C-alpha cells in the first residue's frame, strides 16, 4: 500500500483512539469531533487510493463519500450527516453549553460503534 495512503490511515487510527480515550473520560464533544476526523481521514485515504491525487481540503463527509462514488445505505448516510455536524459544533462554544452532558454522551455512545464499522468497511475497499 502506498505510503501516503498509510499515512492517512495512521492519522485516522490516532483519531479513533483519541475518541475512545476521550469518551472514557466523558469528554464527549471532543469524542464526537475525533470520530468525525477518523471517518474523514479514512475517506481521504480511499479517495487517494482511487484517484492517486491528494485529497481535497474539505471536511464534508457527504461530499467526500460522493467523490469516492460510494453507494451508501440509509444508516451510513445518516452517520455521515451526524458526524459532519460535529466537525464544527464540537470546536466552538454554543449548543454544547445548553445540551445536557448525558445527551451528548448517549450520542457518542451510539455513534462510536457505527463509526468503527463504517471505517472498517471503507478500509476493506482500500
What features would you describe in this structure?
- The chain has 126 residues and is mainly α.
- It has a single domain (3-123), classed as Nucleotidyltransferases  domain 2 (Four Helix Bundle (Hemerythrin (Met), subunit A)), CATH 1.20.120.330.
- Helices cover 76% and strands 0% of the residues.
- The protein is built from six helices and no strands.
- It has helices at 3-24, 28-51, 61-67, 74-89, 95-98, 101-123.
- The longest helix has 24 residues, at 28-51.
- It starts with a helix and ends with a helix.
Overview features:
single chain, 126 residues, globular, mainly alpha, Four Helix Bundle (Hemerythrin (Met), subunit A)
In short:
This protein is 76% helix and 0% strand. It is mainly α and 126 residues long.
Output the CATH class name.
Answer: Mainly Alpha
Q: How many domains, as an integer?
A: 1
Number of strands: 0
End-to-end separation: 9 Å
Largest sheet, strands/sense/barrel: none
Average the pLDDT over all residues and give the rounded result.
Answer: 91
User: What structural class do the secondary elements suggest?
Assistant: mainly alpha
- The CATH architecture can be named as Up-down Bundle
Order of helices and strands: HHHHHH
Low-confidence stretches: none
Helix content: over 70%
Report the CATH topology name: Four Helix Bundle (Hemerythrin (Met), subunit A)
Shape by Cα distribution: globular
Amino acid at each position: 500500500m502506498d505510503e501516503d495512503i498509510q499515512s492517512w490511515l495512521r492519522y485516522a487510527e490516532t483519531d479513533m483512539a483519541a475518541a475512545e480515550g476521550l469518551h472514557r473520560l466523558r469528554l464527549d464533544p471532543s469524542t464526537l469531533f475525533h470520530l468525525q476526523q477518523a471517518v474523514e481521514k479514512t475517506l481521504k485515504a480511499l479517495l487517494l487510493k482511487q484517484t492517486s491525487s491528494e485529497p481535497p481540503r474539505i471536511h464534508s463527509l457527504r461530499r467526500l463519500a460522493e467523490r469516492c462514488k460510494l453507494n451508501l445505505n440509509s444508516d451510513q448516510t445518516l452517520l455521515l450527516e451526524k458526524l459532519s455536524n460535529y466537525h464544527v459544533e464540537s470546536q466552538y462554544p454554543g449548543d454544547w453549553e445548553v445540551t445536557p452532558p448525558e445527551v451528548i454522551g448517549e450520542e457518542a455512545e451510539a455513534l462510536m460503534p457505527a463509526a468503527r464499522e463504517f471505517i472498517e468497511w471503507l478500509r476493506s475497499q482500500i
